[in-house]
Amino acid sequence: MSKKNKEKKDPAIDEETASEVEVMEEEAPAAEAPAEEAPKAEEPKESEAEKLKKDLAKEHDQYLRLAAEFDNFRKRSRKEKEDLYRDVKAETVGKFLPVFDDLERALANETADEAYKKGVELIMTELRKIMSGLGVEEFGEKGDVFDPNAHNAVMHIESEELGENVIAQVFQKGFRIGEKVIRHAVVQVAN
Fold it and tell me: Hey, where are the domains in the chain?
């Protein structure tokens, strides 16, 4: 209420009372103003908290992706290392296969010198033991079933004694490490 309205209603109110009423009216809106500002101040805090939560979620997502990427890198590196080791081992064993073939031919030939024959047998036994320790397997025996992935057929014969796709003769043994073929067996296949 303004001062003029109060004076019209009640002329008995003196000036001091009127000034007190004006002061009270001015203070009342001022008290309401901070109450309105308080929620406005909280709203930015909430949006700031949401922003921090989003940033945290983003950083957490990046962390999980980095951890998964590192785990994949570690697995891929381990597999590459194992493959490289297997390939190098297969290549090294492949270099010794001509020596194996020569020792096998030496054992197949007749000799009058028993000491010589015994020495070649000991060398061949030791070489087979070493190759077995490296995980190298021999394959390609007479009577085995022909497998084009493991055998190299250089001849074909017709035989009633042997079944179809059976190895009739082995010219050179095959070798493998696990599933990796180092050298295919050279064979003659029946039927």
Answer: 1-99, 136-191
